Structures are given as C-alpha cells and as structure tokens.
Amino acid sequence: MGRVKLQIKRIENTTSRQVTFSKRRNGLIKKAYELSVLCDVDVALIMFSPSGRLGHFSGNKSIEEILVRYVNLPEHERGSPMSTDSQIEVLHA
Amino acid sequence: MGRVKLQIKRIENTTSRQVTFSKRRNGLIKKAYELSVLCDVDVALIMFSPSGRLGHFSGNKSIEEILVRYVNLPEHERGSPMSTDSQIEVLHA
DNA sequence: CGACCTATGTATAATGT
DNA sequence: TACATTATACATAGGTC
Q: In Gene Ontology terms, what is a biological process of this protein (chains A, B) (predicted)?
C-alpha cells in the first residue's frame, strides 16, 4: 500500500525499518483482534525485534494459556487445519 | 473492506464465520510474514478456532523457540514496546 | 472447501507539521 | 521524534464455480 509498491525484503535503513515496524505491528495486532472477535478464535501473537522492541496480542485468553495449549498438542497436529471429527475431539479436549 | 463494511463482532452464521476465518487467517499470516521480513523481526502467530481449526506461522525461527524466549521474559517485560536503554539491554541479554 | 472475481473499505509509504 | 495527511496498494465481503 502507500505511495509506492514495496518489495518484501529487509528494509536496510534503520529509521525506516523501525517506522515501518511500528505501523505494521499495530496493523497486525488490529487484524488479529478483528479475527479473534469476528470468528470467535483464540489468537496469540508475539513479535521480537532485533532493534529492541517487543509486542504481543491475545484475545480473551492469556497468551500463556494459548501457548500451553499449543505446546501440548501432539506434533502431528500442529500446523494444519483440523478436519476429521476425531481430531476435533482432541483439539477440544 | 469488501463490498460491505463489517462490524467487528462475532459472525453468527457458521458458514460465513468459517469462510471469513479462512480468508482472514491467510491475510494475517501474510502480514505476519511481511512484517518478519521487512523489519527483520521474529514473529509467532497461533490461532485456535472453536470450530476445530488451527493455524500458525513463524519466520526463520521455530514457534517453539520464540515461545520459549517469550516465556523466559520476566513478567514486567512482557506486553509493551521497549523504550529505555536499560530495558533494551535486558531484552538483548 | 478452496480458487477466482470485482467492488469497496483498509492499511500504509511517503510526506508534511 | 512523534503525530497528521494523502495518495495508492492491498485485503476482503459477497458471489460464482
């Protein structure tokens, strides 16, 4: 968006990179919030920047709660949409 | 966006909610990816849906690595942008 | 269910204050 | 250095296949 099309690669200018980080971090958090409300989803978002900034978001539940839930998933269930009834059972357990 | 402006509240129609989830999940992951590349940031994103879907994203590092880093932060350092030098020192330690 | 289409609302890059 | 503005690229609601 913006005045010019932006290539998706590391922004070399430090000031520009931090300004862009601030803006996009806010946008990403807003989107995460909207998704969590619209679709009744638990979302956890964590960002670490090498330039010394941290940002995170989560909906109703605490980030910790969501992280624990994720970590407790068997490995093969991480990372792809669930579809079978049995998988859904497990997810809801 | 879209043809109609959407209020930010839970979408009651199940089908619509799942369709919106699919679309916005993809959009959110794309944004997270762009942020991680443009700003050289580690991002972890986890989504749990009550309707039985799971989605996640992380950049170079594994989600687990980022989660561990987050969990190991002292409580008072979680949750807001870092600004003072001393805080940045701690974050980089 | 996901992929594509298109009108329209949003996010945001560059710029101004 | 942060905040406001503006032009423009992007995301997406609703619909079709």
A: positive regulation of transcription by RNA polymerase II
* pLDDT 10s digits, B77-90: 665 444 333 333 33
Q: What is the dihedral of CA A58, A32, B46, B83, to 10 degrees?
A: -60
Please check whether strand D approaches the CB of A5 to within 7 Å.
yes
**Whole-prediction pTM:** 0.84
Options 3.30.450.40, 3.40.640.10, 3.40.1810.10, 3.40.1650.10; CATH for A14-74 is 3.40.1810.10
Nearest by CB to A79, from B9, B56, B69: name it: B56
Total residues found in chain A within this entry: 93
Give residue-wise pLDDT tens across range A11-33: 999 999 999 999 999 999 999 99
Q: Is the CB of A84 under 7 A from strand D?
A: no
